[in-house]
Amino acid sequence: MKVNQLSSIKTQLPYSYYSLPFCKPGTIVDSAENLGEVLRGDRIENSLYVVSLYHYSTINLCLSVLSVRSERV
């Protein structure tokens, strides 16, 4: 699974997905799929999760503890 940038209703500038306190993979790899994504400014990066269809499995998701300061980002 890949992640993209996040937009805000308070600012015109998008946030990088991992600038917020989400669980990060060990190494973050940028991957532009095509020229259109590069021209739009999409920031597509890898995530911790792999999604496969028609395959039942359970996983433990990452847990993050947020403080009052981190909620006001």
**Total count of strands:** 2
* Rg, Å, rounded: 15 Å
Low-confidence stretches: none
The level of helicity is 10-25%
Compressed to H and E, one letter per element, the order equals: EHEH
Task: Tell me the number of helical segments per DSSP (H or I, 4 or more residues long).
Answer: 2
Q: Average the pLDDT over all residues and give the rounded result.
A: 79
Query: Would you tell me the structural class of the helices and strands?
Result: little secondary structure
Shape: flat
Overall tally of domains = 1
Distance between the termini: 24 Å
Report strand %: 5-15%
> Which strands sit side by side, in order, in the main sheet?
1-2
How would you describe what is shown here?
The chain has about 70 residues and is low in regular secondary structure. The protein has one domain (about 1-73). About 15% of the residues lie in helices and about 5% in strands. The two termini are about 25 Å apart.
